[in-house]
Amino acid sequence: MSDKKFNAFEMAQAQFDKVAELIGLDSGTREFLRNPMREYHFSIPVKMDDGTVKVFRGFRVQHNDARGPGKGGIRFHPQETIDTVKALATWMTWKCAVVDIPLGGSKGGVICDPHNLSLKEQEQICRGWVRQIAKDVGPVRDVPAPDVMTNAQHMLWMLDEFETIHGGKYPGIITGKPVGMGGSLGRTEATGYGVIFTLREALKEMNINPDTTTASFQGFGNVAQYAIELYLRLGGKVICVSSWDQEDQTSYTFRRLSGIDLKQLLSITNRFGGIDKVKAKELGYEVLPGEAWIEQEVDILLPCALENQITGENVNKIKKSVKIIAEGANGPTTPEADKIIHERKIFNIPDFLANAGGVTCSYFEQVQSNMNYYWEKDEVLGKLDVKMTAAFLAVSELARKKNLYMRDAAYVISIGRVAQACKDRGWV
């Protein structure tokens, strides 16, 4: 989001247009699906701790709900834009469809920086966001969830405000809640684990033993941390991770060629995923520039931060050793970079397939909340593994059968499912 020339929604539309042309989608359906059905912009006035009133801008975009209620996170970010939210809502539609769960795509956001806000101020933003959109979200309409810089506490404040407004108990209105307050066991691990479930299947198809592989991760937030944990359990070795430094307002790469120690790094990491540079050096890590994660001699690259990270400008820094890119983040690879990755025959697990574990487990939480019956953690993660594996195999099979790039194959499946739902409903 920091690159002003980059427009995430234009990128999402370009990806859609390419596949719409490929599958011969009619013009009416194409125009309907390339834009959101609804979008909301609103102001959230907050009385700050110093007594002043500050107005924050909030958004909710509902891209498509033909297959079920909207589903998508809420981001708190100082550089949030409506175009980013529209892109993420669009990708959520395809993500839900590719793993074949009965939900549509939505996304929300507030332009703010939680680093600089007290908990009381953050609570007021959460409650204010719900007050503005309470009539247009809900268990059978649109179900929010956490995203960048939001967490279970934020979701609980939002749930409480929604229930206060509507006068009832509606735990299914939001997911990512604390366990014990309607949250699902396994939700914290779900996105990161889902990335590795798909990576595991890709390695099987390529006849590569995981314990012979090395990997480089971009990001050290929730997604990366749990992806690293499961990848290490498969026997792989992570030689570096990148991390955002709030104090310097930049990112750094932490490298140790003998392999990182996850528990050790977590012990010097703040709640936003920022690794302490001084302590990391003391523990034997090299501290390199933020983009160095992409330049490593590894087998696997895992971008697990924000969009627009593998671009036409840096894609050629990817070493010849790289065999797989698994996209834990949303929209990390631009179309220009994608073209080169495809030409180099690097196996790409596209974002809306690789990171669909989060929304899949959110769906599980929604189901559990609505029926007021909760599953054990092993059951949740087992169901997640089944869903992610089936989705990967379907995309991979189509890619081989039709000689398609994995991203294109995933889009063919997801766009086809959503377009058919719209036609069946008589919308187009």
Strand and helix layout:
Blueprint: H1 8-22, H2 27-33, E1 38-47, E2 53-64, E3 70-77, H3 82-98, E4 104-111, H4 119-133, E5 142-146, H5 152-166, H6 187-205, E6 214-218, H7 222-234, E7 237-245, E8 250-255, H8 262-266, H9 277-282, E9 286-289, E10 300-303, E11 324-326, H10 335-343, E12 347-349, H11 351-354, H12 357-371, H13 377-402, H14 406-425
Parallel strand pairs: 3-4, 3-5, 6-7, 6-10, 10-11, 11-12
Antiparallel strand pairs: 1-2, 2-4, 7-8, 8-9
Task: Tell the overall outline.
Answer: globular
Strand line-up in the sheet with most strands: 9-8-7-6-10-11-12
The CATH superfamily of the domain at 188-349 appears as NAD(P)-binding Rossmann-like Domain
Helix/strand order, N-terminal first: HHEEEHEHEHHEHEEHHEEEHEHHHH
Beta-strand proportion: 15-25%
| Tally of DSSP helical segments | 14
What's the β-strand tally? Answer: 12
DSSP helix fraction? 40-55%
Give the CATH class of the domain at 188-349.
Alpha Beta
Radius of gyration: 21 Å
Low-confidence stretches: none
Intertermini distance: 33 Å
* Biggest sheet overview: 7 strands, mixed
Please state the structural category.
alpha/beta
CATH topology type of the domain at 188-349: Rossmann fold
Give the rounded overall mean pLDDT: 95
Question: What's the architecture of the domain at 188-349 in CATH terms?
Answer: 3-Layer(aba) Sandwich
Q: How would you characterize this protein structure?
A:
There is one protein chain. With 428 residues, this protein is an alpha/beta fold. Among the domains are: 36-170, Leucine Dehydrogenase, chain A, domain 1 (Rossmann fold, 3-Layer(aba) Sandwich); 188-349, NAD(P)-binding Rossmann-like Domain (Rossmann fold, 3-Layer(aba) Sandwich). It has 14 helices and twelve strands. It has helices at 8-22, 27-33, 82-98, 119-133, 152-166, 187-205, 222-234, 262-266, 277-282, 335-343, 351-354, 357-371, 377-402, 406-425; strands spanning 38-47, 53-64, 70-77, 104-111, 142-146, 214-218, 237-245, 250-255, 286-289, 300-303, 324-326, 347-349. The strands form two sheets. A seven-stranded mixed sheet has the order 9-8-7-6-10-11-12. A hairpin with a 4-residue loop joins β7 and β8 (250-255). It is globular.
